[in-house]
Amino acid sequence: MGARVARRDVEPESRSRFADASPTLDAALVDLDRLMAARPELSAAAGSLATVLIAAFRAPVPEIALHAEPELLVEAWRAGVPAFHAGEAPLGVHSDDLRARAGSLAEALRAINPGAAPLLKALQKGQANPDTWAVEALAGRPEVIDADACNLGIDPALARSIVRLGLLPQLSAHSEKLATIRPSGIWSGGNCPNCGGAPTLAESRGLEQRRYWRCGVCAADWPGERVRCPFCGETDHSRLRYRFVEGEQDRYRLTVCDACRGRLKVTSTLGPLSLPGLLVAELATAHLDGIHFV
Ligand SMILES: [Zn+2]
Ligand SMILES: [Zn+2]
Q1: Is the pTM of this model over 0.85?
Q2: Which ligand neighbours the alpha carbon of 138 most closely?
Q3: Ligand that comes closest to the CA of residue 258
């Protein structure tokens, strides 16, 4: 019942408007319903995720200019520097958009997570500052968020999630723009060409099963390789092993690299997963975390 309950919580008229405004969100909610029907044990998690998706992705993303000229970005990629770190100016964060999404997430989560109430209070009182947390997250210093959260009596994991989800829509919009100016073949790294993070998921896309890597921080997608570890570059196929749950091998697999012990989930897709679709895929593949390699 989880996701269906959450979808009913949205007023009927806003639900129809919202389908027009965000077809990818609506499609992701339908996928969640399907996932729940196929795997009832995920009902509670799917219901929570539906609440999160609606709170984080319903509002349209404002127009935000890129922080550097295209020529400079292309030069950075050529030199192996991720786009968000190119040039002198830091990546601009749209504060109002981040605050609004963090607020609606905390508000929506109150019903399902007791830790959300202190977070909402701290946000409303201005004690928790999502802008500062965003800067730390983008600089790769999430431990600063943890310390801040602890001082305010907020669950650090929840604070990190709020920043990630609150930022995702605007970072994803950046990634979409960047994808239009990134020359094909210029980025061969296993890390994200935009934020520099490690891939969160791999897609085995289309009939050709081409491999693409996806970033969980900025939703970027970039071409990967089936026989290459994105974490350490290992290309010896005998050292890149697959595991899967019986009966699911065509849909979800887990690869592990013997060289660096890096693990990456692979999901079969027809085309690129949408931003909310990426989070649904994370839930659908979460059980692979429990697979042990010897
Ligand atoms: Zn990224
Ligand atoms: Zn590796």
Answers
A1: yes
A2: 1
A3: 2
